[in-house]
Amino acid sequence: MKTEIKPEFLVSPFLVSFLVHGTQYGVGVLSFQRELAEFVGHDAWISIIITGFIIHILIWMIYTMLNNDKGDLFTIHQRTFGKWIGNLFSLLFILYVLTMAITVLRSYIEIVQVWMFPLLKTWPFALVLLLIVYYVVTSGFRAVTGICFLAVVFPAYLILTFFVPIEFSNFRNLLPIFDHSIYDMVKSIKGASLSFSGFEYLLFYYPFIKNPASSQKYAHYGNLFTTLLYLLIMIVTLAFFDQEYLKIVIWPTLMMWKIIKLPFVERFEIIGVTTWAVVMMPIICLMFWSASRGIKKLFKVKQKKALVVLLFICFTISCFLTERETIQQYNQWTSEIGFYILFCYLPVLFVCYHIRFKMGKKI
Amino acid sequence: MMKKAKAAAVILILFCAFGFGRVPKLILDDINMESAVGYDYVNKYIIKATSVLPIYKPDKSVGNETFTASDELSKETLKKINMASSRQMVNGKLEVALYSKELAKQGIGDLIDTLQRDPSISERLFLAVTDEEAERILSKRYGDRDTGIYLSMLIEQNMDVGLVPTYNLHQFLNTYYSKLSDPFLPLIGQKGKDIHIKGIALFKGDRYVKSLRQDHQFIFKALLQKVKQGTYKLRLRKHHFIAIENIHTKHNFHVENKKNKPEITIQLKVNGIIRETRGKKTNKKAVEHIKKLMEKQLETQGTEMIRSFQKLHIDPLGLGTQVRSRVRNFQDQKWLNQYPHIKVNLKAHVDILEKGVVD
């Protein structure tokens, strides 16, 4: 490795589980049920388990590559595909991270607009959120990790709220089990990919972990926790909604919160949406940190300058996404791209890397 | 220099945020929160909406105010109501939505849409059908509360301990969108000065078709949900009745011959306590007799009711969803064609736990 990270910038290995879970558990949680149930109906919870398992394998692949390389995505790309092509792939990956960041930011603002303030303009809100992002990211990776930790611990009370809809649920909806073909199951994994993405940033922050090789189990714990949480939400959703009804609900999780009634607060989803600001903040922070670090390494510019440019691009694009239909279209594209990057590109990279590495040894 | 530029940028962003990022505020004292809304049929295209809102008077009593407007769209009626009101109307605290029978016959799907599309409306909202014009029911004042709260308490109380199945907006939408079951709503009528729950209005899709017979109400709730605190009037002979109270029930579905033509057997378990008898001793033999009689009566009522549902092609009990959850590769259309000819057996088992403090 060319540049060693100074030890005062490193984070403990156990924090990786917060980093992984914190970035997976984002805006997707509010709406992922619908895309899954579209293909497999009441068997959607099985797809969650399958997807979670596949992600475990992908995490293992990422760690095998990284442990071997003792670097990050950029060194892996350079060693596998050579300097120019490798850097090109890195750049495309950074673009993917940027599009994901826009998705998260715009989806969240849309939720606030639909559920709380219909008259809220996009740009001032985006501006303030991105200002916070700038503040966190410029404070360094340790600050980003801290935000991730907070974002997992602070909204944890929301897990309890997923038990409330059980009062109006019918668990017979889940039967019969395995009523769909394997082909449908595979198609539904595509729908789940967006809500499970977030672990791939390991490729960026790996050098910032103390004893990085020992952090693998924590990454798996993080993903396991995400899977279990999604499983709980999915099962409750399927029991709470009828299949036909679920097909037209855009944000099933928020709909489930609507049934909660507390003596002091009539509409619980307002609290939920507000708490979600804390949940989605670290995701955007980590994404921008990764992207700006990538730009820094590729073009040898200062990270802060790269960050400002990226934030500006994100701000402009999210302001142009104004209608529900365009946002949905955009999200669908990102979801599609995300699926191919995570489930196709990463395994291909893994294979290429190993072929290359073995050949390199022989020579 | 750099630092100054940065500080300027931060101040500019914050200024923009506070300057342009504001949304109009709604102060509790300056808005009208409607607590109930009623819809009436005017003609094929136009509906009449009536909103009720509580007025909190300085002497701590609560009054009522009603507004009525007619239009094609229900949100548009809200706008027209706003024109007549001194404060802005909001619907975040809506408790009850009423539909007149005449309107329900034409279909209420489009009107439900506005309730479901609006994020500020609770999923726990109660829906009900009124026997006469909703406006007439809403324009009166009942009890010491405002009409909206009164209605919601009336319905909720009857769901908890009465014979109305627990049923809110969410459950209505679930059954409304489901292909395999049909919704129903409580039917509210006026009797003299008071309002009362007359029964249950059955729907096919979003259209009212029939109201449930009074004597079928108990078995309807028992087959749909668990009755936790029910009462049942058992007819022994002409003019001889027994009241069974504190009833709690449980039911189980069994489906046979799943592949071709399903046959459904429902086992109903009823536990209750004798509270009042007229012209009957309650020794051991008599209790045994009462049990047998009640079982028979429940079974005949139940099968009669299910037959009438099958004749109307409606499935408020959700038999279709019960069969779906037990059959692999379930085909909706095939089931819907079969439904009127499905054989449904009802087996009741009654246990009289206690008979009060005298024999």
UniProtKB/TrEMBL annotation, chain A:
Keyword Disulfide bond (UniProt): no
Topology versus the membrane: Multi-pass membrane protein
Keyword Cell membrane in record: no
TM segment ranges: 44-63, 84-109, 115-137, 144-168, 188-209, 221-241, 270-292, 304-322, 337-355
InterPro entries hit by this protein: Spore_GerAB
Keywords on record: Germination, Membrane, Transmembrane, Transmembrane helix, Transport
Subcellular location: Membrane
Domain of life: Bacteria
Pfam families, per database record: Spore_permease (PF03845)
GO biological process: spore germination
CC terms in the record's Gene Ontology section: membrane
Family: Belongs to the amino acid-polyamine-organocation (APC) superfamily. Spore germination protein (SGP) (TC 2.A.3.9) family.
Protein known as: GerAB/ArcD/ProY family transporter
Organism ancestry: Bacteria, Bacillati, Bacillota, Bacilli, Bacillales
From TrEMBL, chain B:
Topology within the bilayer: Lipid-anchor
GO biological-process terms attached to the record: spore germination
One GO CC term on file: membrane
Domain of life from the UniProt record: Bacteria
Main location: membrane
Record-linked InterPro entries: GerAC_N (IPR057336), Spore_GerAC-like (IPR008844), Spore_GerAC-like_C (IPR046953), Spore_GerAC_C_sf (IPR038501)
Subcellular location: Membrane
Domain Spore germination protein N-terminal positions: 27-188
Domain Spore germination GerAC-like C-terminal positions: 198-356
Alphabetic keyword roster: Germination, Lipoprotein, Membrane, Palmitate, Signal
Similarity comment: Belongs to the GerABKC lipoprotein family.
Name of this protein: Ger(X)C family spore germination protein
Organism: Neobacillus rhizophilus
